Structure formats: C-alpha cells, structure tokens
Fold:
Amino acid sequence: MDNKNKPVILVVEDNDDNRQLVLKVLSRRNYEVVGVVDGNEALERLNTINPDLILMDINLPNMDGYEVTRRIRQQENFATLPIVALTAHAMVGDEEKSLAAGCDAYITKPINVRTFPETIATILKEHMP
Ligand code: MN
Structure:
C-alpha cells in the first residue's frame, strides 16, 4: 500500500446500523475506514478519500451500487481499484450483475464479523501491484 500506514477502505452504505458495524469491525483491524451514505457522496469524495478498496452496498437510494460502480470505473484513476459488492438478499443473478458492473467480488449481508476482515485482507492482497 505504498507508504501509507493503513489501507483506506471506503464504505458506501445507506443503512446506519450496517455502516457502523462494518466501520467498527474494520477499524479494529489495521484499516482506516471512511463511511458515506450514498452514491453521490461516494462520487463527490472519491478523489479526496482515494481509497485502496471500496465496499459498495448495492441497494442504495437514488443511484444503486451497480450504477455507482460503473461511474467509478469510468474514472481512469479508479479503473482497477478493488470494489466489493454488498447485498442483503442473495438473488439469482446478483453476483453476475455486480461483476458486470465492474465489481471484483461479492459479499452477502449480514456479514460474518469473524471472517469479514480476512476476506477483505485477501481481496486487498490479490489487488496489490
Ligand atoms: Mn442499502
């Protein structure tokens, strides 16, 4: 992760409880975490936050996580940034849709707080240059 002490993880999640849980679980590990409530906030703050990984809730108000992901992928700086989709209901086709929108991985909610940080660490490692 270059010279940064901690990988920065951006959490895009409109549900307060879910967002707080993910932030809490990850901040206990060696991560700097930033939470935003929707796609507009994510897109507005993306360059400033400059995350190493994004956790993207799919079911968001106004603009769903697929659309947010597509818009992030249009930006050259973030063409290969790891984006992990989070969805509450594992519907048939959700994983395929996430991958088609440009996500790298897919995690079903509710998250398992014990295995979640390891899963994130693995994905980060896979995407290190
Ligand atoms: Mn949601």
